[in-house]
């Protein structure tokens, strides 16, 4: 089905020509270059040669960069402390964030000698309100399945900052991270001044991604915009191969503007002259602006419809939830365009295809991103009681995503509970006391929630509750907790703060009030079914105790949402 006329890498690794001759390894490309097109091997064998070739390099090569820790120490903690020093104290709601001397990003690229590398990088650039990270993860996974070396930059991270930088689908190693980190940090420390100060946190991370992807010579760099588009540090890319705009909605209005049109205008700031772009169906107001900006820049903008189950040939997407069919379809177009333009691989147009090519399906089915529609059974409880506690984690934090998250949770708990009951019926335990515990009657859904105070709980909580209720899922109780991660600090697994009795819970009380007013108005018996905990570990302890104390093997299903920080904190605690 495909014509293969491209070799994923013409130059295997910058450091290694001497090193290769030393090992008498010949880069596959240097051998294959001389073959006429028809005699070139099929891609699978070529890509496996490249893989094993790279593996040989990885295993034998000295550390790619020397640790240059003149201002910092060796340890990961020291790098994180240096990184934390770049987090500005200014409130995110401050309007002066807008633009904020965006042109500085180009100065930093010069200081880091990255200008030329940036021009060579084969970038896929994705903006949007929701679904950016998922779209990028799908795209990366498809290209990797075609044998290309990939670099993926996403945000935010949940547990460890290295999650933001993936090489060939794997979080960058601590050693490589430290090497590149200090290389960039020290160089910038030396070369910045009053005129050009040290970059802020996200800008530094984007520059670090550029450095990593350039030095690691990735074939494809997939970049998720941090915030907005026009003035985002990732927009330093001058000539991406293709751009994507995922679902648009209301978020970060304090910075991006208070109408969908204004928000769309900021996101369309990633469009580049003549570079093709794709988007999913958007509200009219947003679509109009995207089309306007596209025509100004001679950008062909194509609107893609969600993927169908048929196109996936019965496979499930690696990321769960209906909304992922939009993200996955966007990823298919981004990856196809990249494969055709850079990979020189023919991909039939979607209209010609009822089923996607196998490598696309495999890429989409194996894509992963933590904290998006993720289900994690609590092992602590599982091992000790007949009941069980399952966490359903999704970092939704905007009204639209709250709704898709609620739909996902409702459908998945209903499915889980039905399959549990039928399992017990099949096992012949119908009528026993235990089978009751497996049916829907003995299941309880509990909400564990927090959101940042810039969000409007009067929008988020009703969306969440009403959507779940419409699907027949009513929360038994809602728990509100403060975040553990400290905003001004990039933490690690090791340094979760201890319980703080002085913690200010006024925001959580506000959330509780909004929740109570919702349930009060509708179901009298639900009154008072919410609680504020002073810390997340206490809320988790309460959940575990309530499963232990129940004699009938209660099944507790906890939806954790409202904040990716909260989701990250829960993951840290339940995985310990
Ligand atoms: N197409 C979509 N439409 C609506 N909501 C979505 C969509 N895709 C994802 N979401 C919701 O947004 C959450 C975050 O998804 P994802 O990480 O892909 O988006 P993002 O744009 O990178 O978000 P962030 O602003 O946190 O970086 C998901 O957990 C899900 O609840
Ligand atoms: Mg966002
Ligand atoms: Mg994201």
UniProtKB/TrEMBL annotation:
An annotated Gene Ontology molecular function: metal ion binding
Residues given in the record as ATP binding sites: 372, 394
Pathway entry: Cofactor biosynthesis; tetrahydrofolylpolyglutamate biosynthesis
Pfam family for this entry, one: Mur_ligase_M
InterPro entries per record: Folylpolyglutamate_synth, Folylpolyglutamate_synth_CS, Folylpolyglutamate_synth_euk, Mur-like_cat_sf, Mur_ligase_C_dom_sf, Mur_ligase_cen
Reaction(s) this enzyme catalyzes, per UniProt: (6S)-5,6,7,8-tetrahydrofolyl-(gamma-L-Glu)(n) + L-glutamate + ATP = (6S)-5,6,7,8-tetrahydrofolyl-(gamma-L-Glu)(n+1) + ADP + phosphate + H(+)
Enzyme class: ligase
GO biological process, one term: one-carbon metabolic process
The keyword Ligase is assigned to this record: yes
Residue span, Mur ligase central domain: 126-295
Recorded superkingdom: Eukaryota
Residue sites binding Mg(2+) per the record: 155, 224, 252
Keywords: ATP-binding, Ligase, Magnesium, Metal-binding, Nucleotide-binding, One-carbon metabolism
Co-factor requirement: a monovalent cation
EC number: 6.3.2.17
GO annotation, cellular component aspect: cytosol; mitochondrion
Alphabetical list of PANTHER family matching this protein: FOLYLPOLYGLUTAMATE SYNTHASE (PTHR11136:SF16), FOLYLPOLYGLUTAMATE SYNTHASE-RELATED (PTHR11136)
Protein family according to the UniProt entry: Belongs to the folylpolyglutamate synthase family.
Function: Catalyzes conversion of folates to polyglutamate derivatives allowing concentration of folate compounds in the cell and the intracellular retention of these cofactors, which are important substrates for most of the folate-dependent enzymes that are involved in one-carbon transfer reactions involved in purine, pyrimidine and amino acid synthesis.
Name by which UniProt lists this protein: Folylpolyglutamate synthase
Origin species: Brassica carinata (Ethiopian mustard)
């Amino acid at each position: 089905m495909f014509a293969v006329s491209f070799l994923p890498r013409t130059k295997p690794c910058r450091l290694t020509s001497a090193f290769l001759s030393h090992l008498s390894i010949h880069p596959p490309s240097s051998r294959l270059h001389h073959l006429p097109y028809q005699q070139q091997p099929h891609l699978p064998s070529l890509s496996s040669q490249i893989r094993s070739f790279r593996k040989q390099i990885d295993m034998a090569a000295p550390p790619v960069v020397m640790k240059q820790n003149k201002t910092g120490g060796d340890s990961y903690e020291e790098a994180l402390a240096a990184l934390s020093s770049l987090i500005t104290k200014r409130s995110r709601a401050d309007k002066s964030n807008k633009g904020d001397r965006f042109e500085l990003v180009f100065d930093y690229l010069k200081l880091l000698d990255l200008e030329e590398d940036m021009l060579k990088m084969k970038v896929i650039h994705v903006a949007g309100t929701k679904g950016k990270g998922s779209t990028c993860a799908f795209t990366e996974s498809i290209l990797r399945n075609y044998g290309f070396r990939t670099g993926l930059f996403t945000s935010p991270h949940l547990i460890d900052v290295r999650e933001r930088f993936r090489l060939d689908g794997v979080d960058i190693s601590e050693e490589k991270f430290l090497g590149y980190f200090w290389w960039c940090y020290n160089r910038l420390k030396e070369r910045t001044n009053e005129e050009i100060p040290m970059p802020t946190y996200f800008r530094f991370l984007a520059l670090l991604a550029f450095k990593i992807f350039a030095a690691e010579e990735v074939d494809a760099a997939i970049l998720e915009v941090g915030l907005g588009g026009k003035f985002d540090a990732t927009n330093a890319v001058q000539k991406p191969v293709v751009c994507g705009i995922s679902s648009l909605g209301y978020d970060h209005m304090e910075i991006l503007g208070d109408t969908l049109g204004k928000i769309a205008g900021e996101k369309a700031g990633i469009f580049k002259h003549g570079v093709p772009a794709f988007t999913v169906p958007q509200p009219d107001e947003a679509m109009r602006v995207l089309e306007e900006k596209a025509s100004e820049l001679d950008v062909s903008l194509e609107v893609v419809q969600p993927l169908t189950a048929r196109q996936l040939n019965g496979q499930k997407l690696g990321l769960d939830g209906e909304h992922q069919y939009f993200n996955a379809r966007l990823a298919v177009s981004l990856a196809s365009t990249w494969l055709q333009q850079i990979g020189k691989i023919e991909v039939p147009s979607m209209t010609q295809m009822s089923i996607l090519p196998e490598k696309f399906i495999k890429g989409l089915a194996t894509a992963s991103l933590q904290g998006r529609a993720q289900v994690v059974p609590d092992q602590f409880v599982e091992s000790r009681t007949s009941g069980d506690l399952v966490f359903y984690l999704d970092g939704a934090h905007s009204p639209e995503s709250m709704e898709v998250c609620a739909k996902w949770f409702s459908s998945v708990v209903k499915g889980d509970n039905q399959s549990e009951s039928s399992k017990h019926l099949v096992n012949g335990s119908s009528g026993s006391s235990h089978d009751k515990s497996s049916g829907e009657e003995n299941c309880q859904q509990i909400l564990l929630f927090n959101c940042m105070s810039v969000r409007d709980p009067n929008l988020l909580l009703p969306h969440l509750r009403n959507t779940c209720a419409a699907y027949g899922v009513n929360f038994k109780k809602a728990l509100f907790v403060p975040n553990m991660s400290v905003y001004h600090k990039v933490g690690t697994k090791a340094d979760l703060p201890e319980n703080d009795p002085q913690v200010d819970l006024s925001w959580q009380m506000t959330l509780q009030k909004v929740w109570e007013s919702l349930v009060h108005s509708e179901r009298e018996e639900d009154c008072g079914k919410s609680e504020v905990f002073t810390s997340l570990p206490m809320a988790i302890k309460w959940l575990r105790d309530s499963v232990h104390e129940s004699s009938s093997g209660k099944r507790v299903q906890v939806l954790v949402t409202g904040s990716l920080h909260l989701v990250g904190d829960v993951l840290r605690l339940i995985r310990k």
